[in-house]
Amino acid sequence: MIVRVSEARVRPERFQEFHDMIVTAVREFPERHQGLLDHEVLVAPPHSLLYVSRWRAEEDLVAYAGEGWRDQPVVLPGEDEYLLAPLRVRHFTLAPLN
């Protein structure tokens, strides 16, 4: 499993509007993107929002985000107007606890 974290630094005065746009946009992602196991939106107002998604395998992420999935975020149309800085994307895998 690969955990993908997209971090948005949002203009505080547009935070709620951006949040609503993201939640609406990703609501149907599990039905549209094979291999997306789970996802959530995490917020830390006034300017931080994370979209966390859990993917079954690398090929599922390639299908969703393209060949540059490791360092290129998926940007929705019009998203840039809400942001203080470009999206940041990171990936994690589970580490054994023993």
Explain how this protein is built.
This protein is of the alpha+beta class. It has a single domain, classed as Alpha-Beta Plaits (2-Layer Sandwich), CATH 3.30.70.100. Helix content is 24%, strand content 32%. The chain has three helices and four strands, in the order E-H-H-E-E-H-E. The protein has helices at 15-26, 29-32, 58-65; strands spanning 2-9, 36-44, 48-55, 88-93. Strands 2-3-1-4 form a four-stranded antiparallel sheet. Strand 2 and strand 3 form a beta hairpin. The relative contact order is 0.30. The mean pLDDT is 96.
Question: Keywords for this structure?
Answer:
98 residues; alpha+beta; Alpha-Beta Plaits; four-stranded antiparallel β-sheet
Provide the fold topology:
Layout: E1 2-9, H1 15-26, H2 29-32, E2 36-44, E3 48-55, H3 58-65, E4 88-93
Antiparallel strand pairs: 1-3, 1-4, 2-3
Main β-sheet description: 4 strands, antiparallel
CATH topology: Alpha-Beta Plaits
Our Rg estimate from Cα atoms comes to 14 Å
- Specify the CATH class: Alpha Beta
* Span between termini: 18 Å
3D shape: globular
Sheet/helix structural class: alpha+beta
Under the CATH scheme, the architecture is 2-Layer Sandwich
Our count of domains comes out at 1
Number of strands: 4
